[in-house]
Design brief:
The chain is α/β, with parallel strands linked by helices and 361 residues long. The protein is 41% helix and 16% strand. It has helices at residues 21-33, 72-82, 96-101, 103-126, 130-135, 167-186, 208-218, 237-250, 267-281, 311-317, 325-338, 340-347; strands spanning 12-16, 37-42, 62-66, 86-89, 137-143, 190-195, 197-199, 222-225, 231-236, 256-259, 264-266, 293-296. α1 (21-33) links the parallel β1 (12-16) and β2 (37-42). It is globular, with a radius of gyration of 20 Å. The termini are far apart.
């Protein structure tokens, strides 16, 4: 993995959390589509995987630095060494179930880490020239979970009141507020995006869609929380990263942009679709995937429904998702079928497909 970037006049992006699921997609897109240099800063916790950056590892416009955003000294060194034009912050602990089992780590990374990153960004920004300051942006990637839970109708807008219901969403809500405060207090040019549930290649297999794909292939149980009727709005990761890039290029400083896929499905609908696609693509299975579905104890504080109103980014920045759900889900299933080595290497870590997020009894 590259550790030093070649000298060039190209603008440099610092992407924190760039070895994670969404961050690595953003990095791969940018190096394939744009004349930029990308520096990834990632702590490489369980969900950060250098294999997800393997397609760009030999790119002369790519560099990797292993560090956490809470390490202010390393963040300062990296900013001063690489002189990025913009910072995109993906770095976060992101799984609700893990936050139930161990909330302290979510506070350390998502709250304190974002604070230390903002502090170093503020120092760095203050030392730039007027021209450099005009180009600088700090884009913070967040989640729709900060808004809480919806009833059977309505959607989250950028004006929806924050009402987080899990330690994860509470930590992300706090980080959002810090980012906003650093704009209004210190003049740091920030942008915030709040996205719906992502899916696609390279996603860590504890999340719903990859876990169900892999278990359906392997003939393992498909555990569904509660009655399986919790609703999420699903967003293909490639579309999400294109939206982030659009916000970074044209978003209004200080603004929030909600990004959604306009693809509401119940969890049971998702699993049924996965089962059918797996059975079609792997016709020689010795089991019927739908027969593996098991309804299990719901997790504490499980939000009933999320749905994003993405009309602001669509109207103001002209972004629309490019992939329909069924086609992109089939692409995702095919990717996991074709990339078993990636999955095996990820599974070599501490996560082995066990249930998380039951909470203390």
């Amino acid at each position: 993995m590259s550790s030093a970037i070649q000298s060039s006049s190209q603008p440099t992006l610092l992407v924190t959390g760039g070895a994670g699921f969404i961050g690595s997609c953003f990095v791969r897109q940018r190096l394939a589509q744009d004349d930029v240099r990308v520096v990834v800063l990632d702590k490489l916790t369980y969900a950060g995987n250098l294999d997800s950056l393997a397609p760009v590892s030999d790119d002369p416009n790519f560099a990797f630095e292993q560090a956490g955003i809470e390490d202010a000294g390393e963040v300062r060194r990296i900013l001063d060494q690489y002189q990025p034009v913009q910072i995109v912050n993906f770095a976060a602990e992101s799984h609700v179930d893990r936050s139930i089992d161990g909330p302290a780590e979510f506070v350390m990374t998502n709250v304190l880490g974002t604070f230390y990153l903002l502090e170093e960004a503020r120092r760095y920004y203050s030392e730039r020239s007027a021209t450099q300051q005009a180009e600088f942006r700090f884009l913070h990637v967040s989640t729709d979970e900060v808004y809480g839970s919806l009833g059977p109708t309505g959607k989250f807008t950028e004006q929806t009141k924050y009402a987080p219901n899990s330690p994860y969403s509470a930590s992300k809500a706090s980080s959002d507020h810090f980012v906003r405060a650093y704009h209004h207090t210190y003049g740091l040019p920030v942008l915030i995006t709040n996205c719906s549930n992502n899916y696609g290649p390279y996603q860590f297999p504890e999340k719903l869609i990859p876990l169900m794909i892999l278990n359906a292939i392997a003939g393992k149980p498909l555990p569904l929380y509660g009655d399986g009727q919790n609703v999420r709005d699903w967003l293909f990761v490639e579309d999400h990263c294109q939206a982030i890039w659009r916000v970074l290029q044209a978003g209004e400083i200080g603004e929030v942009y909600n990004i959604g896929g306009d693809a509401e499905r119940t969890n049971l609908q998702i699993v049924h679709t996965i089962c059918d696609v797996v059975e079609e693509l792997v016709p020689n299975l010795d089991h019927r995937p739908r027969e593996l579905i098991q309804f299990v104890q719901d997790r504490p504080g499980h939000d009933r429904r999320y749905a994003i109103d993405a009309s602001k980014i669509q109207a103001q920045l002209g972004w629309q998702p490019s992939h329909d759900f069924e086609t992109a889900l089939r692409t995702t299933v095919r990717w996991y079928l074709d990339n078993s080595l990636w999955t095996q290497r990820v599974a070599d870590g501490s996560y082995a497909g066990q249930r998380l997020g039951i909470g203390a009894n």
